[in-house]
Protein 1
Amino acid sequence: MNAESSPSGSRLDPWVDSYAQRAKNISGSAIRALFAVASRPEVVSLAGGMPYVQALSMDQMADIAARVVREKGPQALQYGSGQGDVRLREQILDVTAEVGVHAHPDDIIVTTGSQMALDLVTRTFCDPGDVVLVESPSYVGALGVFRSYECDIVHVAMDDEGLVPSALSEAIATVRAQGKRVKLIYTIPSFHNPAGVTQGPERRQEILQIAQSAGIAVLEDDPYGLLGFEGEPPRALRADDAEGVIYLGSFSKTIASGLRVGWAIAPHGVREKLVLAAEAATLCPSNYAQLTVSEYLATEPWQEQIKSFREVYRERRDALLESLQAMMPEGTRWTIPAGGFYSWVTLPEGLDATAMLPRAISELVAYVPGTGFYVDGQGASSMRLSYCYPDPDRIREGVRRLSAVVETELEIARTFGTASSGSTLTDGESSTPGPDLA
Amino acid sequence: MSARHVLVLSGGLSPERDVSLRSGRRVAEALRSARPDWEVTEADVDAGLLPHLTAHRPDCVVPLLHGAAGEDGALRDVLETLDIDYVGSDAAGSRLAFDKPVASTLVSGTGIAVPEFVVLPQSTFRELGAPAVMQAVGDRIGFPLVVKPTRGGSALGVSIVRSAQDLPPAMVSAFAYGETAMIQRFIEGTEIAVSVIDSADGPTVLPSVEIVPESGMYDYHARYTAGTTEFFCPARLNDDVTQTVNDVALTVHAALGLSDLSRIDVIVDAEGVVWFLEVNVAPGMTETSLMPQSIAAADLSVGDVLARLIED
């Protein structure tokens, strides 16, 4: 029945055959589209990882921004150093001292959020096919970076104290037996995103020893380190190994994510390469944003502000955990975060959080399905719940809605006697949420 | 022509919110370009809509909401209640078209081929026992078959099921989008989308679009990711089949009492039989949607087509 008239059709994108291989998996997905609904005010979003910037004094932030332009305008509005403002680098060391990290300002490179530092480090270390060991689950934004450089990503088991040392050793041995090279061990030791767990002091030493003896660089991502709810901030891995650890920090959670100021602290040789790579990518980080942060640190009681952030997040964490305990069906498990933004929830056996998402969105509650935090299809029965943005009442309402959704899903699973593993929603990179959810 | 105030509605709370927002932005821009003297505004559908409509009373509304509320007639009923003009089918026609089993039954009554289907709510599986019901349905319809929610678009919750063991997860996926699922015989063939536009001379068929998804299934990814589906417009059909496809589209448009614009999706099998699949009263207008391709192939523009429908 086909006529012979048209030799080829249109794919609506004239460049479709010109894209690099690594760009071919970047696409829309039904899951990502569902998150468009999550932005509506009717929806209780337990999905987003947005810091509660409303806790800042906006009048003070406005004064700081005005002061920067008025008093340092020609510098703030000009190009700057590729490595970042010197004064800010000195101030960053005051912040990192809280987690035991001491260094020279020259060891620091300021970046556009620590996400950029992740990109620079990966670009500097990894050729296509090189292995990066990541936690299981791992930060979705890091997986995206590793994938974009065509790294071979291997998940390593975690428990309630984070990355499991024996599993790490085993993974290194297995990968090496396959003739592949491990370039980086990527870890979030404190208040993990998305798992909500924290490595204990002994665990940290074991991980460092394994990395040192294997000769593999540790990429330590520590955006939440100062947001613990009890006691002193955990001591960073970098505090005990200046040569083997590349440390990533950020002001996104301790001041404001919209400023996009983060940093890396790296051994001398690495840092030189990172600066060159950064200059190639962006010439320099925003001088205006850097000077705003610098002015804030110089004139505001930033440690007090972090304390008040901790109180806000602790209250919300408590609301989440109490609601989960009171309302979620039997068989549901969750981690108990001692800081940070997230709890990792595992559904009763047989349920698929990805397949359940459309029903949740219809019932006006949103979460991030667990599969987005893996590259190998794991995580189907899990989800990440964020408590950082909604207030405690909204969190309780969100969990109430979520528990009803899970009850319905349990009934469907009982009816069909199946884990809904045949979800038609796509997995992998295309299912990962956007920046406001990462 | 005097200046008009046209309000483009998009967004809403359906799983197709993202698609709807993209359609809305595109149509609003097209209308501004086609009629620079008109005031074209955009709004989401939320609690602020009714006060907005009452306060501003647009001359015409373009509802580009996909999924429930936008396509099931409810919003159009509200607009009719407020006595505000809108583009597209009325509430009654939308209700018929949006419910896939109802539309399929009505279309089947006109003599057009419709793949055999059964419609089952989730409760039937629970009360009668899912294994027995699925066994009976599989025996009746045969594999491969298609499972889809009875309401909704963009292929969300739709699965092609090739064996009995894949049926339970497909049912679960469909039920994530609604309480009732349609299980339908799968027709192997060429997917065709036909757009119908009303004009002073009556309903007109635009050049049809043939859909060739790279993955073999025209799912959400294939629909909204440029480069993943090859489109032929006009479709590579011989004259006889083209005529049949066009006749089917016009018959569906009339049988369901649709007006202004609709998109009818069919499959043409190896023997040239044209099978009705579904009809859309708020067709997608995104960069990768089908109706804009048909409009372009007819040497028209989205803005002009919509503007004429508003003017009429």
Protein 2
Amino acid sequence: MHMADALVAPAVAATMYVCSGGVAGFSVKKVRLESDPKKIPVMGVMGAFVFAAQMINFTIPGTGSSGHLCGGMMLTALLGPYAAFLTMIGVLLIQCLLFADGGLLALGCNIWNMAFYGCFLGYFLFWRPMMKKGMSRGKIVGASILGCVVTLQLGAFSVALETLASGITDLPFSVFVATMQPIHLVIGLVEGLITAAVLLFVYEARPEMLSCSEERAKSRFSFKKTIAILGIAALVIGGAVSLAASSNPDGLEWSMERLTGSTELENDGTGAHAAAEEIQEKTALLPDYGFKNSDSTFGTSFSGIAGSAVVLIVCVGACYAFRFFKKKKS
Amino acid sequence: MNKLGNALYEIHHMDMLAAKDQWVNRLHPLVKLVLTIVFLTVTMSFQKYDLTGLLRMGIYPIVLFIVGEISFCDSIRRLRIVLPLVCFVGLFNPIFDRQVIGYIGTVPLTAGMLSMVTLMIKGIYSVLAAYLLIATTSIEKICYALRLLHIPAILVTQVLLTYRYVTVLLEEANRMTQAYSLRAPNQKGVHFKVWGTLAGQLLLRSMDRANEVYESMTLRGYRGEFYYTAKEPCKAKDWLYLGVWLALFAVLKVTG
């Protein structure tokens, strides 16, 4: 479906360059916002993969012909629409320069016809809505086939429109469209099946590589969510579950009771031991996990919640301090 | 040689041509890129019946083939990709546009025939122009010129990396398909039962390679952008070369 320069008038080429350039600029901004330096090498290698994979002939059963992988749809499923679009631009530019597949002047048209529809419409119309509520083999096959068929149909229609607008052929628009669309329907179907086969393999082997995958969503660390969950858990455990805490002695106390007959060591009322106990009694806000001079069960709940909060504050504070000193050191 | 092998050969061949120490190769890449785009724009802007104007534009590829000492026969092979679609579109012109505009001997020449020929010449010129650019300028230099034109660094870096790894992954894909074809003789292409496995394996290997590439780049100081060690300014001869061609294109277009 690569358009040659000869099929495009300079005005049409310039218009399509502006359209594709606008989308490319937006994609660059989006990829930059992700601020993931790892993404660029991954995009580069994935571009090379698409290039190589498109040269493998996949036999179509029952026919003597072969099909190829649909780059746009596959990249968008793996990298997301913005990175996929930029990757496809690189692939199309190299194909045009090295293999004369498409032309320099028609590059804007080819980017629009193959990269824009495949990456953006393929993602926002099919891939994301279908994978929103979880992935399955059926959904991957459906999204791949639908995505490839529809985006290729749109691409082929755009080729006809751009050729018509360029005014270089006397072939009636209806005839051109009637020739292009059925051919690309079959091509889209085959490309969709090949893309589905590859994505299914990835889904089985490394599902986290697919965009919108549950695994990828799970792996996203949300600080606010984590703090909220921990806070609720601390409230429930410290406030409610602590009321049902066992009155039986713990392991150490049980051992001591077996040896000495009491769960606590008796002090002789002199020396450092007595002084330390006196300080502890005076400073302890919640002695024996309750309010001072009170047997209320509310004291136990309050102790649980307050203790959890203090532990949380100390831990978070320690983490921030560690990060601060690490940054300072580097 | 299969498709993958052909692609590998083509890339190595173009790399060798671009690395030649010719006068044209030493010109500033920005000048050559701009000239190619201007040439294509001017060529494609000729009316579909303006055969003489179009033929005169042939001076640009002819001069470059001679000065750059580039084989014309090698470039012809590239036409096999472009010409089918151009021919498909052009072949309908004689059918739908039958207005007779002259005679060659006793054979009538229709406007459709003329527009078909101009379309094919445009197709040939566009392929030759791109070929001459890549045969005299490496991808790295073209990317440098793109940066000078303020194309975002992310895009240019991505093109460079894709080009760098195209050969590596083509070789890998070639090895895999060769191993497959040895185990599945008399079979054309890859059987549908292993579509996913074969391409998927290549994909996973590519992803692992991407991670290794990223780690090695990080170890060498990569922080998200490539830096060019020295900026190469346009010299007087580059400006002169650009000026002469632009003036010639303007004359050919105005008098065409």
